Give the backbone structure.
Amino acid sequence: MELLRSNLSRVRIPEPTNRIYKEECCISFDTPKSEGGLFVDMNSFLAFGKDFVHWNYEKTGNPVYLHIKENQKLVSEDRPSKKPTLLAIGVEGGFDNNDPVYEQSYEIVILPDYVTLPFPWVELPEKVRLAVDAIIMSVGVEKKEQVAAWTADTKIISKHAMELKQLDNGVIVPPSGWKCEKCDKTDNLWLNLTDGSILCGRRNWDGSGGNDHAVNHYNMTKYPLAVKLGTITADLEAADVYSYDEDASVIDPLLAQHLQHFGIDFSSLQKTEMTTAERELDQNTNFDWNRIQESGQEVEPLFGPGYTGLVNLGNSCYLAATMQVVFSTRGFCSRYYLDQGLKMAFDTAPADPTVDLNTQLTKLAHGLLSDNNYLFPLIQKDDGDASQTTLTAKQEGIPPRMFKSVIAAKHPEFSTMRQQDALEFFLHLIDQVERNNSGNPNFDPARSFKFGIEERLQCSSGKVAYNKRYDYILSLNIPLHKATNKKELEDFQKLKAEKSARGEELSSDEIVRPRVPLMDCLDCFSAPEELHDFYSSALNAKTTAVKTAGLTSFPDYLVLHMRKFVLEAGWVPKKLDVYIDVPDTIDISNMRSKGLQPGEELLPDCAAEDGGLNANEDIVGQLVSMGFQYLHCQKAAISTSNAGVEEAMNWLLNHMNDPDIDEPIGKAQKSVPYIDPSKVDTLISFGFEEEVARKALQASGGDIEKATEWIFNPPPGITNMDTTPSSSGAEVDAALPDGQGRYRLIGLVSHIGTSTHCGHYVAHIYKDGRWVIFNDDKVGVSKNPPIDMGYLYFFERIDG
């Protein structure tokens, strides 16, 4: 007790604003359920597993910890299953699913000798009792973030409800015995509240659900509201009303009146169907292993280093699939596992390692790649016949909560529990990793994905221009006209037309999809493209130019993005239903850019003649790749002082209709804008040099706050001491990974669903001579990997 009293100054009573961690170790995936429990630092309120708590004591000197241990309670096996009613975790009506019940025990532990004191205990100092009570009563940061992100949005009243048009067509809906008017579906049926039609719901990403007849009916008629039959009871608030126009579950205050129009006595109906929210809960918590990609096949589970799954936190499959492939690359494996232990990451981390990207990437790497204990032991499964008793193993997997919290911090999309685009997440990850390693680029694993793209522009004068930009993915269009099964497609279209004329539907076995070779997609990237209304500085007029593109370097890992999602007329998104024939190895040596060739003459550079600020070609190149004209992009970069792509794009969007937008760049364009001397003096008073202060104010439009941010976080290629654009592209390329143009396929991320922001992502990775499927926390041998269905393909360069 005296030892505890002598350390009372290191004990804090939590304030309401303090972040308290008590669900998971901040540098491992230990929890109170782990063998050694969890130790909560009673000064910083960070949590540590038994193998790591002494690291925190050595680093901070904090000796007093609350030890939390959870042990499973024995409960009746036939207890009733409690079904969740809210899309929420840790709140009344949220997830339960009959998970094991645990009871908690507590004790006070004092390091370094691990002296233990019981809790509760009346002899404990009041400060310690108050601190422990506050920790126990508080909701941990981990659960707070889950609850906030998972709790479903409040339904709104539909804008169509109050003045909904209902047809007097004599339709009377019976109280039972419903069936889709277009097929034989008897469940997942929706009653259109305008014309009384009963049609089946959407087909889910995994093939379950309906046949899309209800939504197709809306597309034809534009009748907006439908109610799900089977969810209507005397409590009309529980009925599932959907607005196709608003694309959301909504409230219909006049639902009783709308139902009576079709002769429905809602007071006599019993609930038989799940609502959309309940079905969403069901799909988010019960991904059936046999229905994802390799449906109906027995999959041999895999465990151990490199075969650890990631728990789905709720629509986090995009993150899980991407990180599994990323950590199968040498760069990320070396940087965050082989070359950096958890101790090194923790020692160099800030006071709170939960917000440090380096620490959380290292934690995730060690969780995935080390010989960890995140596997449930073998359990006996008795099917009632002693001769059929089997032993099965279930992988617990690891929940990437802290990593997701760090990588998604302040990001408006990734910080939510909504489904996201795996491509966008990959690029965001690479950007954050590159920034995190900016002080030591040689250790930056993002470099292994980085390569240069050079675009060659030749106008009708015969003169050329070369623009360079850098990227981490090669985004490829899919040329459907290059399909290799055109005869089968023609026959399929005929069959489709014949069945449609007879009112019949195609079976899944009859559907034929185009097959396009990957090499044809790569050829499209390098194919010549005409650019109209190109301003030629040689002709001083608009003309037509031809653009070709090539790579200036071949990265260690080449990521190919298949543009399966396109916009049709009216900006309607559509997913191309196509297979890509991908070989095991590819050779893209012919895609290397040759640069300026002997005999070629460059287009005159107005900027060089006028002797002022030159446009940053990296910024210009990225804008050109988005479809903007080269001259406009140059003006945008110069007008924003090469501050960055975002600033230049904003300038472009605001000046596209300027009368002089197509005029050549002149001295007026390149002249330095007026800078308020008082603002320059203010930045000088902060300790910055005058030249740096002027450059920052010029780049930020005279805003002191933005100028300060610009100085501390300058655009790539600019430093505080040297505020000129980076050196020539050839010198920069010399620092990038490069080699021969031969690659082998090592992994892919495939997507099931109609949009990148819905559906499900799964990773397949080639490991130890076999394909392995990573489906969230489920990992197993892949018998039939869907190579032709990839959304992102990961290739490793073959050298030698």
Q: What stands out?
A: Residues 538 and 603 are 6 Å apart (CA to CA). Residues 486-501 form the longest helix (16 residues). The longest strand covers residues 541-551. The radius of gyration is 31 Å.
